[in-house]
Amino acid sequence: MILEHRIFKAQPLGFDLSNIEVRLVRPDKRVGWDTVVTACHYPGFKGFAGRGLRHVVLWRGQWVAVAGWQTGAFNCTPRDRWIGWAPAEQVQRLHLIGSNTRFLVPGKPGVFHGLARFALAQMTERLSADWQAAYGHPLLPAERL
To answer: Does the pTM exceed 0.85?
Structure first.
């Protein structure tokens, strides 16, 4: 299968985290992101439940990982207990929670040493601002399922 975007499955020569950049996927690149996730992520991708954002992790302009965020899951007992909102507040504020529902670093585990941790940190730093730009409100917590 030919993908719209090349995504490394093995660590390229000279790879290091200092050249990593996280970007929000532009609307004209969403089909490429969807294709990569559908083809390479074990549950595939049929779309977001509710609102969603797509991020891409680049190394020297090439995709090395992708991630998808959407509105928080309706029911997540540990999260709900931790936040401490009353049941009525949970329903009203669910749109303020971001949930990482797709994260893909192709290849065998450990091939891109430290990439997942580094990329998720970069994404969560910018996630609320990206969500604000897209949907007109920030996110409060972000969770990884």
So the answer is: no
- Contact at 8 Å (CB) between 56 and 47? no
Q: Is the pLDDT of residue 22 over 90?
A: yes
Nearest of 74, 63, 11 to residue 35 by alpha carbon: 63
- Which residues make Cβ contacts (< 8 Å) with residue 84, sequence separation at least 6? none
Indicate the burial class of 46 (C-beta count within 10 angstroms; 0-12, 13-18, 19 or more): exposed
d(CA 43, CA 109): 18
**Exposed / middle / buried, residue 16 (Cβ in 10 Å: 0-12, 13-18, 19+):** exposed
Place of tokens 């969770």: 143
